[in-house]
Design brief:
2 copies of one chain form a homodimer.
Chain A (H helix, E strand, L loop, with lengths): L10 H11 L4 E5 L2 E4 H18 L5 E5 L4 H12 L3 E4 L6 H11 L3 E4 L17 E4 L5 E2 L4 H5 L16 E6 L9 E5 H15 L6 E3 L7 H4 L1 H7 L3 E3 L6 H10 L4 E4 L1 H8 L11 E5 L6 H10 L1 E9 L4 E5 L11 H8 L4 E2 L5 E5 L14 E6 L6 E2 L3 H7 L5 E9 L5 E6 L4 E3 L2 E3 L1 H9 L4 E11 L3 E10 L7 H11 L8 E4 L13 H9 L9
Parallel strand pairs in A: 1-11, 3-4, 3-5, 5-6, 10-11, 10-12, 12-13, 13-14, 25-26
Antiparallel strand pairs in A: 1-2, 6-7, 8-9, 9-19, 14-15, 15-16, 17-18, 18-20, 20-21, 22-23, 24-25
Helix pairs in contact in A: 1-2, 1-3, 1-8, 2-3, 6-8, 9-10
Chain lengths: ~525, ~525
């Protein structure tokens, strides 16, 4: 009889099932190289067997590298070895890596030539086995080549149970010190189903890795795509020409991309015709109507999702309704820009006030977006206080402010730290950014609060224009005033060539704020 | 923080999520009638609220009716009311219904005009509230119309937790007394994901109900299809002309069908062109190569799956491999007729010997097919002895005999009760049937063991020919001998117009056996 509480399998077991169902198919491509599902599965088993022989269960394993095929292999192998994966942002500085090492005290660190310059010399007092996956370099243990040649011992590869830690994902952090977000196998398993279903993945999927694999474990896609027999196409550098080459060479069907990657695709030099329609799932900010229209003309379909590292990636999606077809493009784009409704694996998504009561579903009362369920993290690693604070009232507090519409769709109004409070009025910087983005010359926009002696704060915008286009700040301000309440319109607009961003494409507003607030003693927001 | 052991939602909660995501879409069609997702959800809430006010939690509710829209509504409403659904075969005799009533002691029974003649007068000593869903008739409580007009009280609609009983499915029974197979909400939730993924359902799916909803809860499709925004098309009578009408009128994309329904579709009078390709998932027996070729020419795609009532419907599927494309049609059909590999939600599927050791993966050593995981029943209702027997060694024993091929695919060689043991040799009746089915004139075949004074048993075949085709028993025997070992070939073949079947299309071999063995004292098989 089923064991009570037992459910599902650890995600790497889904990969093993796939090795039977799709044995002779190509699981993974990287340049000229490819691996079938059977080859992939055996390679992961060899690595896992080698790890089991050398590392005690539940030790942490850092993965610090580009989107290489070894990343997908390790996603599987580390889990099969009963170890905890810690995917670290490949653009981290040596100092940032040290902070993570001190927090999670890993036993092993995998890296590649792109990150070799930042591999730490040692892990404080403890030993740290460091292996380069694209070379023979190794300190404190075997080389990657030796590990890859281990004999398989399947009997020792089932050390993990469903509630064990799957991975620790350090938030890339627009502000402050990174915190380790804990994923369990149970949560990852369910999220695999959600990813497959909402991305409509099947064994014909060809997925291009423009999303960094270190970001929320690549939204669970390394497991999910393999589980359903799709093909990964690894891509080390997210450049426009490289993306277009891969799209055409491998008949790509899917990619996930931050808005900045969507811009990169859009603005590449050679944007020739696609061989197949490509579904782009984008998160971070709603794509502008102009972007959507442009991409659709090129043969892309854009799906807009919302989530956080703490929710294993996407948790909501903006499903189109049949009656929207009868609306004007402008009306429709307002509805499409919303964060939408729960994905199928999501178990709870609300907008609440300070007392945890649902705000009225009126599309205007702001509240905090909260979630619960198996697709919400198990907590912050070794930080019970931060965990308790995040889960106060039994729900995870996203820190994002939004509204609930009468049709049950949520709409993000602001990351709470980015809200501008001017003369006591909350101004949603996203609303202002959307108004700016609706101008055809605008490629990207970021709005922050800047000091104002009378109002406390007022909004200021930083804008990047499309190549070859022009617009003056005055034109843009007039455009915004025609769209939204004028008190929300920025008085200053700075036209710039680039916005500061995290490696996953989130605009780092704190960098913009820091320069604007320099020298001020009191800050409204930290 | 997530509660340990908590996972997922009860499936009717998926339906509530869908009511937001697909509010204005059509959820359900029946003739000229249709319901949007929002209408469907509210109707289910009304019924559930009415049930909660009148029935104590965890009481059993019989559903005895055709594939009407109320069936889908009740699948949701009974669950939301915290009650246990008991879907009963709509062709059951009054006596068979009495046996089920005595076993599960229901408090409520829903029926329609097609089953009204078999509604019991009373439930022994206990009261039994009986309601007709397509009329005002009601005994022991409110009418269906009154129940449908109840005010909604959502606060009372969350009485069920994940490990509670979802439903009791009495096995339709090719032999013996029916047993109540217990499904939990947890298992049903996971199976929904499996159904969506393997049937490639999305919000564009239009699903025609040729599978009886009482059969394994319709393979979880009432929940699964609604959860992903697809449209149910109810069909009261499974007739060829009615199926073709619906296929064309509603642009159907999917249906699930026993082989007998596939034959019905194939042999209908008006088989004009399809408006869209239709995916048919078929179980019960592998479709013959002739059938597959014929259906594909008409625009159908056939997927062959295997499962049992005890596994919530399908648990394995026969995934095609790219290298099969290079084989001859005959070679390919042999591979395609296998039961295949685990579906994505399946957690364990093995072929074992009497000591629970895996049989060699040689494609010839027979063993019993066993399963475990959340997509296997929680047990037989109120029958701990039968449950313990079925789960001996920690795995569910299917009673089906099969082999494991070197590529990890299982192949069913016989339902164990149907095996023919002749002169000490096991003869797989399925193998003989497949050999017969490969003859172009043969529509259906059933092989049983008949008494033989020398060998104990020998195989005998009952064959139905395609309309307008002819073949003599001698020709068919010669055809079989050319295909498989001659000791397996039947010496007698009876050409007949019809085979005895259950309402779900399984051939009732016990009926054939009973007549052949009449008068014999000793029987090899019961």
């Amino acid at each position: 009889m089923p064991e009570p509480g037992l459910i599902g399998a650890i995600p790497s077991a889904l990969m093993a099932q796939a090795a039977r169902a799709y044995a002779g198919k190509v699981a993974l491509r990287y340049g000229e190289q490819s691996w079938t599902f059977a080859e992939f599965d055996a390679a992961a088993d060899r690595l896992a067997s080698g790890l089991v022989r050398r590392v005690a269960p539940a030790e942490r394993v850092i993965v610090l590298m580009a989107n290489r095929p070894e990343y997908v292999l390790l996603q599987c192998a580390i889990e099969r070895a009963g170890l905890v994966r810690v995917p670290v942002n490949a653009r981290s500085t040596a100092h940032e890596i040290d902070v993570i090492l001190a927090d999670c005290e890993p036993a092993v660190l995998f890296y590649d030539r792109t990150t070799a310059d930042r591999v730490p010399a040692a892990n404080g007092e403890a030993a740290l086995w460091r292996l380069q996956v694209d070379g023979d370099a190794a300190r404190g243990g075997a080389s990657y080549g030796e590990l890859s040649a281990e004999t398989i011992d399947r009997s020792r590869l089932e050390r993990a149970t469903l509630d064990d830690l799957s991975s620790i994902n350090y938030t890339s952090g627009t502000t402050g010190r990174p915190r380790g977000v804990i994923y369990t196998h149970r949560g990852a398993y369910l999220n695999c189903f959600g990813e497959i279903i909402h991305s409509r993945h099947d064994e014909n999927s060809v997925y291009l890795w423009t999303l960094p694999m270190f970001h929320c474990n690549g939204w669970c896609t390394p497991w999910a795509l393999t589980a359903i027999g799709g093909t990964h196409v690894c891509l080390r550098e997210v450049r426009g020409d490289a993306i277009w080459d891969q799209l055409r060479e491998h008949d790509v069907t899917h990619l996930n991309a931050a808005p900045t990657v969507v811009s990169t695709i859009l603005n590449a030099r050679d944007t020739g015709p696609l061989t197949r329609p490509v579904l782009i799932t984008t998160a971070g900010a709603p794509p502008s109507p102009t972007t959507i229209a442009h991409m659709e003309r090129m043969g892309f379909q854009i799906v807009h999702v919302y989530g956080l590292t703490e929710t294993y990636g996407p948790i909501s999606f903006c499903q189109s309704q049949p009656e929207w077809a009868g609306l004007s493009a402008d009306e429709r784009s307002v509805l499409q820009a919303r964060q939408g409704v729960s994905m199928i694996q999501a178990e709870g998504l609300r907008v609440v006030d300070a007392e945890m009561a649902d705000v009225p579903a009126d599309g205007s009362t702001m509240g905090e977006i909260v979630m619960h369920g198996n697709n919400v993290m198990a907590g912050y690693y070794l930080d019970p206080d931060a965990t308790a604070e995040a889960f106060r009232g039994g729900w995870f507090h996203s820190g994002d402010l939004g509204v609930m519409h009468p049709d049950g769709y949520i709409e993000l109004r602001d990351r709470s730290k980015d809200v501008v409070i001017s003369g006591g009025e909350n101004i949603s910087t996203i609303e202002v950014e959307q108004a700016l983005m609706s101008h055809p010359a605008v490629l990207e926009a970021a709005v922050i609060g800047v000091p104002d002696d009378k109002w406390g704060e007022r909004p200021k915008a930083f804008v990047v224009l499309h190549a070859g286009q022009s617009a003056t700040p005055q034109e843009l301000i007039a455009h915004v005033r025609a769209k939204i309440a004028s008190y929300k319109a920025p008085r200053d607009i700075e036209i710039t060539f680039e916005l500061p961003k995290t490696s996953t494409g989130k605009i780092q507003k704190f960098v913009l704020r820091d320069s604007e607030w320099a020298g001020r003693i009191h800050r409204v927001h930290g």
